[in-house]
Amino acid sequence: MERTVMVRTELEVILLEQALTMARELEAVSDAAPDGQVLAIAEAAAVRSGRELTWTTL
Questions:
Q1: 53, 19 contact by CB (below 8 A)
Q2: Could you read off the pLDDT of 1-54 as tens digits, one per residue?
Q3: Are the beta carbons of 37 and 53 closer than 8 angstroms?
Q4: Residue 18 · residue 56 · CB < 8 Å
Q5: pLDDT of residue 52
Q6: What is the separation of C-alpha 43 from the centre of its chain, rounded to a whole number of angstroms?
Q7: Is the N or C terminus of the chain more exposed, i.e. has fewer CB atoms within 10 Å?
Q8: Do the beta carbons of residue 29 and residue 9 sit within 8 Å?
């Protein structure tokens, strides 16, 4: 799926790139996680990535 997104500031560019990276990482770690551990592993990755995303906005 391909979409076009209009960004207005450099911060929006950075945040969009980080959000896409976060989504791709979550998909990858979830796919690679053993059965029964998907939620815990995905949650840990989401918290870490979410912190990085938040720090960028500050």
A1: yes
A2: 899 999 999 999 999 999 999 999 999 999 999 999 999 999 999 999 999 889
A3: no
A4: yes
A5: 87
A6: 11
A7: N
A8: no
Q: Which pLDDT score, from 0 to 100, does residue 53 have?
A: 86
Residue matched to tokens 């976060």: 22
Burial class of residue 27 in the structure, from the number of CB atoms within 10 Å of its CB (0-12 exposed, 13-18 middle, 19+ buried): exposed
Could you tell me how far CA 11 lies from the centroid of its own chain?
Answer: 16
Residue 58's Cβ-side half-sphere holds a number of Cα atoms within 13 Å equal to 6
> What whole-number distance in Å separates Cα of residue 26 and Cα of residue 32?
10
Tokens linked to 27: 């998909």
User: What is the pTM assigned to this prediction?
Assistant: 0.80
